[in-house]
What we know:
Elements: H1 2-9, E1 12-16, E2 21-23, E3 31-37, E4 40-45, E5 51-57, E6 62-63, H2 65-70, E7 77-80, E8 84-90, H3 91-100, H4 102-128, H5 131-141, E9 149-150, H6 156-162, H7 167-179, E10 183-186, E11 189-192, H8 195-199
Antiparallel strand pairs: 1-8, 2-7, 3-6, 3-8, 4-5, 4-7, 9-11, 10-11
Helix pairs in contact: 6-7
Amino acid sequence: MEDVAYLAEHSELIRLERGEQAFRQGDPCDAMYIVASGTVRVVRLGRNQREHVLHLCVPGDSFGEVAVLGEMRMPASAIAASPSVCVKVPKGALQSAIQERHEFCRSLLRSMAMWTRHFVGLLDDLVLQDALGRIARYLLDLPSGPDGVVHLPATKKDIANHLHVSSETFSRVLRNLADEGQISVEQNGIQILDADALMQHES
């Protein structure tokens, strides 16, 4: 709790409207961010300005810390996918916390390990999984409520981009899974009806 209080004392809340950027790819790194509410898209732009969604950050997720620790420019852009509130932790405060607070260092290392695991999984999906396998794994990884319904953290277009499939393919796979009785597409989310069957697509 002391670490949280220390960071809170040296941080600020920023509010982002949908489509507003926290920073652009190539900007100097001046802070890391923690999502308090809403969803933020972390997007990498290619040479032709085509974008790929690296991650969809939801409340509790952080972003920008890699650039802070590596003292590099921002490797991607951060864009609000919905009205969002983020905690902006200045670079100086973060570096002071790293030097002085051991428990905070361990927490940050755990966060970095989770990021590494996420990107290794994403690479595995792109190389080893077909579209059905990627989508099945994504649905299974989403947290579900007590009613078994998972809520998509962003638009289908952004999620499809993140999974490196077209929006049409994403929608078609969801329809096929629903027709097979493995999921049910509800108004408020997607209910997993047969998790075992979904797991069979991860190969």
